[in-house]
Design brief:
With 491 residues, the protein is of the alpha+beta class. The longest helix is centred in the last third of the chain and has 33 residues, at 318-350. The chain has helices spanning 2-6, 10-25, 36-49, 65-77, 81-103, 108-121, 131-148, 152-164, 172-184, 188-212, 215-221, 235-258, 261-279, 283-301, 318-350, 370-384, 405-409, 428-440, 451-457, 467-475, and strands at residues 353-358, 361-366, 389-393, 443-447, 476-482, 485-490. It has 2 domains: 2-347, no CATH class; 355-490, no CATH class. It has a 4-stranded mixed beta sheet with strand order 3-4-6-5. Strands 1-2 form a two-stranded antiparallel ribbon. It contains 20 helices and 6 strands.
């Protein structure tokens, strides 16, 4: 199998990776909308499509490019959860292709096995359009270009690619720069070309930052210091983290023994990703760190499929054994993808998922939650008559999660708040702005968030000023109870 794949054209390989992405995506692309990450993605895509600007007009944690792409998908395919998930699956494809390009020097069969493994690693994330994955794919593409060419032009393009991740995750520019170091030292011309490419790409981000104002820095960089660790850490996450650390260690050892720059670069990628896992030790963040680093490490621990080790001292049958191992790896990933795809299609027809449609927008909901969503939208629409609506929690002085998805089903004129989600760890100035959001609304939907969930998800985040809660008490009166909270109107 490996020998056959080694002879494939690039387009066949890309098609194969795309098919694996599609097969893996069948398990999640039709699921009811659940997480706050996905809810906010959908809502922010609506706002960008309506002409609003991330950070200036609404709170966002990351760069604007993710919301631009989602808005573009809404414009092309309609404002739905599925359209947002198309963007997510494109990110999965980008990661798979980037991993493949980083491994082609190990042999095309090895590269395909690593790429398909990376795609399958992404399955626990579902099809959500995570900005991290887009930024990661750009860092990997930059690494691949640095591997494959030594020309100053290529290094300049690599620098521009690495810096472009700032449009999705600004902090990952540092990751791109660190992973490039093994290719830049020594070599003044290479480093200069890379730096010029980096600076040229960052110039566009600087213009954007100057245009939207200080909220850009406030929203993105003040979130870096928020202690978002859980009170209970999943043992599987601990084991997975140990595997990631072992992968990085193996790359460091291989780099020293072989004097191979790519191994050093992968080791740096592992080290640079670990703070992300330590800040939020859950399955999603483990996948963020492991999806590329583990397949890359396995691909580079193995000897190259074509040719032999540098000193050519292997026994004659090592190549045959290696090809059997690689064949089993590749066959295993492709078989797993096929089984997942078939089961995903079967499960789709067995699962009762409902489209909740309001105008041109829709959500996917389970059969039992769809009536509650419709009743809540009816109550909000009746109470507001198109006036501004704010969606929050009964106690907004403490860390909380809210039902931001309802903004997606309301008219754009009703969505005026800056904090459409309430990020944990606001300071006093931000708490005052949250209170302004409540004050500017005519109707509120406030839900309970249990202390048990708060202790589990935000054990180290302290309460903020209760400015928003004071506005609720002084200006609003409780109205009808819905399946997702209480509707408040002005007294």
């Amino acid at each position: 199998m490996v020998a056959a794949v080694d002879k494939w054209t690039t387009w066949r390989v890309l098609l194969l990776i795309a098919l694996v992405v599609a097969a893996a995506g069948t398990t999640s692309v039709w699921l009811p909308l659940l997480s706050l990450d996905e809810q906010s993605n959908v809502v922010y895509g609506d706002l960008v499509l309506a002409g609003r600007v991330a950070h200036r007009d609404f709170f966002a944690t990351y760069g604007p490019a993710n919301y631009w792409l989602i808005a573009g998908a809404f414009d092309l395919f309609g404002a739905s959860v599925e359209s947002q998930r198309v963007v997510g699956l494109l990110y999965h494809l980008a990661v798979g292709v980037a991993v493949y390009l980083c491994c082609t020097q190990r042999g095309r069969g090895v590269a395909v096995a690593a790429a398909t493994t990376a795609v399958l690693f992404l399955m626990p994330l579902g099809s959500i359009a995570y900005a991290w994955l887009a930024a990661l794919s750009l860092v990997l593409l930059s690494m691949a270009l640095l591997q494959r060419s030594s020309s100053p032009v290529a290094f300049g393009v690599a620098g521009a690619l690495g810096a472009s991740c700032a449009w999705w995750r600004p902090e990952m520019v540092a990751v791109a720069g660190l992973t490039a170091i093994p290719y830049l030292v020594p070599g003044f011309r290479k480093a200069t070309s890379y730096s010029l490419g980096l600076a040229s790409a960052l110039a566009g981000m600087a213009v954007y930052s100057a245009t939207i104002g200080p909220e850009w820095l406030t929203n993105v960089w003040t979130r870096v210091g928020v202690d978002a660790g859980y009170s209970n850490v999943d043992p599987y996450v601990v084991v997975g983290g140990a595997v990631v650390v072992a992968s990085g260690t193996a790359m460091l050892v291989c780099g020293i023994k072989r004097r191979e720059r790519t191994c050093f670069s992968i080791a740096i990628l592992v080290a640079a990703g670990l703070p992300q896992l330590l800040q939020r030790p859950d399955l999603a963040h483990l996948v963020f760190v492991a999806c590329a680093t583990v397949p890359l490490s396995v691909a580079h621990v193995l000897p190259a499929a074509r040719g032999v080790i540098a000193d050519d001292a292997r026994p004659a049958d090592t190549s045959r054994v290696l090809r059997l191992e690689l064949g089993a790896w590749l066959l295993g990933t492709l078989t797993f993808a096929l089984v997942v795809g078939v089961l995903g299609v079967v499960e789709r027809w067995r699962t009762d998922v409902v489209h909740v449609q309001v105008g041109s927008r829709s959500l996917l909901a389970s059969a039992d939650s769809a009536p509650r969503i419709r009743d809540t939208i009816d109550a909000l629409t009746s109470a507001s008559a198109g006036a501004p609506v704010f969606i929050g929690a009964m106690d907004m002085s403490k860390p909380t999660l809210t039902w931001a998805m309802f903004y997606h089903l309301l008219p754009s004129s009703s969505v005026q708040a800056y904090y459409l989600e309430i990020p944990p760890g606001l300071d006093d100035v931000q708490a005052a702005r949250l209170a302004d959001d409540v004050h500017s609304a005519d109707v509120l939907l406030l839900s309970e968030f249990s202390d048990e969930n708060r202790e589990l998800l935000f054990p180290n985040i302290q309460p903020i000023a209760d400015d928003a809660d004071v506005v609720v008490r002084e200006e609003f009166c409780a109205g009808p109870q819905t399946g997702f909270g209480v509707v408040f109107t002005r007294c």
